[in-house]
Amino acid sequence: MNLEKKKGKSLNLVIMGCFFIIIGALMIFLSVVLTPRISQLLVTNAIERTRETVLQSTNSLEIYVNNMLDALHFAGSLYPVNTDDEADTYFALQISLLQKSHTDMKSIAFFSDTGELAASTDTSLAVSSGDITGMEWFQKALQWQGTVVYFSSPHVQNIFEGRHDWVITLSKAVDYIENGQVKTGVLLIDYDFSAISSLVSNIQLGSSGYVYILDTEEEWIYHPRQQLVYAGIAEEDLSAVRTQVVGICRDVQDGRERVLIINTVSHTRWRMVGVAYIDELSSLQNAFIRIFTIALLCGGLLSISAASLTAYYVTRPIRYLQEKMRQVEGGGLDMVIAEQGFSEIRALTTTFNHMLLRIRALMGQIVTEQEARRLHELNALQAQINPHFLYNTLDSIIWMEERGNSQEAITMVSALARLFRISISKGRNIITVREELEHVRNYLIIQKMRFRNKFTYEITAGDGTEELRTVKLIVQPIVENAVHHAIDAYNVHRLHITVTAKREDDFLLITVSDDGIGIPEDKLESILSAPVGGSGIGLRNVHERIQLTCGKAYGLTVHSVEDEGTTVVIRLPTDLEG
Amino acid sequence: MRKTLIVSILCITLCVVLMAWGLRAEPETQETPVPVYILVLTEDKGTDIMQLKQGAQTAADEINARLQILTLEQDGEAGPQLTALLDGLTTELDGFILPSDNTQTITKTGELSIPWVSLWAETPLAGAWIISDYVEMGRLMAQAHLAMADIQANSAVAVFMSGTDREEAILEGLRAELKGDISIYQGDSVSEMARNLQTLPADTCVFTLRGDITEALASASGGRFAVWGVDPGENRVSLLEDGLVLGLAMEMPYAQGYLALTKLHEVAKDGRTPGQVYSPCRVVTRETMYLPENVKLVFPLLQ
Question: A304, B301: Cβ pair inside 8 Å?
Fold first, then answer.
């Protein structure tokens, strides 16, 4: 029977495929779900850090502004309520000391309500009192009546002779009494603008980022590229900043996305704007993405390696077992496969080894049985071709011929010929009951003719038994035993031998009975294990042949009572196939 | 087994190479060499030079470069000094900026193997040269003059100049805007020009095309003439505030410094040769000198 080799899925590939699916799904999940979130988080964190930097810068500027205001209020508190020359001189001395203690103070001056210079750290005015009263810092200060301090934008102060300092001007109205009249003058302090510009210019927001300050009129208080913007070389788009006082917004300038962080400086209402470039803030994000991508790729490569190795090591014992089975298939039934690998594979190997053992045992059993069968058949044949039997029979034939009993000689020759023909049966081991009984009949014919008064016989076949099958040459040896007892010199009784074949349930029973002296009990026990009688075949031979062919449930059963007779029952299956 | 081992070894090797490359990429980024540029000056004083340096420093900060200032001795040839300076440098130099008064000594590109740009003069030997658009300067001066409400349309125009290429370009711009006759007074002697000035009719509009000529003639005019001039430098404020000049044409040294370094970076790193690059200029009057777009030009905020 040819078994087709059917190709299924390779376990190796299945294991590797499972690895790839799991790792691939994980990589996709990390890439699609986690990476954008973490990237965004990194950018958000960077923006938050930038915002904090701008906030700290705003706080620093506010502290400076508060110090400026404190100094202004302090200077204002120094001005005498009742002015006279002595008081003014004392005031001038005090503000001079104040200026010396503040290196970023360029000048302190007090102007009367008419713009006259009352006291100053620099008394050389380059402008007239009329010009003073027309200046914004003077007018605003008077307008706000000391409740609000005027904060100017950075400008060149040109009211003092020979000086053009870049300053931030603070001014406030101060009441005083002159000649009994309450008047309001204006206190002015000019602060060196470079202090503020240095503070702001040192703020670093990435490598390209910067900070600028706008006043309420959207004029720059400070911008690191102010001159370049005015020269038309650089640009600064204020559209995103215009609508916000505090907050974060984004815009695009020169093709680069920017984040703008806006804070308001208290007291001045200046807006400090921190400009940071998203591509610089994203450097960490880019680094993360690069490292993450490398990690994913490495993970993928390692998973391929792990999958490959795992698949190999998992399937190696299977492949080993497979190879050994192939050798067994090729005829190596004697091998014992070493157990190795996982417990399941070991169990499989153990089971396979047991199977091989069983196969070897069964094969040995078959060989033994076939050998025994062949031996028994040979013995049976040998019995039939027993020289003594043949010689005696031929001798009897010659004697009959000499006596002129041709008919009896013919009968004996015919019976002999039929005996031998059935014995050979063209090599068949299974013949019909009819043939087996015919064989016995011919044997008995010959023996009867030889030993006329020694025995009688009767052969009966029940209905439906003659076409049943039986093992060849099993009845004659039993009958032969009975015949031997019959012709025994010590036997004086005329034996009657009965051979019957009947069907009982699923059994074919062939019974050979005689009314001889029986078999002693001690011999009866071992009768099936030793040859009895002169022919040498023995009941054992017949019994074993039957069992070899039909199974242990079949064979001979010997019943014997001394001095009464012996019955041998041959049990056969009714469905014996030959 | 062999196939499995090969696959595994290959994958592990690729993994190691990938990790090594990935980990090296960061340090390489951080260790990117900073370009070093030098601004060569013949003098390191004055607000214009200060602004030039500030503008160059701003550009250096933007491109993450390092800027060094080298001042040549005023006595002696600039070329040999420069060569000696370059030879004596211990750090690797990526380029330098050279003022025009020294570029004339550079006759062969072979003398300078390092990228360089020139300031204030057309210098085809350099990768780029930064100059003001003097023709435009002349046009602006003329336009500002014509915008004056009290200028008579048929007023006489006199131009005082020494005849340099720069002045010729300014004159070209003036001619483009001023349609009437222009009297040209060209010479080397400023005092002679001042004497010539006194011979002109009082309603003559005077254009002086060089800083020292402006200063001298403005003082000699005493406000009698409508004088337009070119930025004389330190005394510009008094000339404007005192009304001795109606307006001054001013270059923008901060922008020049910025452009010089920016273009030098292009030449050094990208191999581009932008050639002539105009820096902007402006005409400032007494009325506009305190405007936000002009005030830092007139009163540089030096840090």
Answer: no
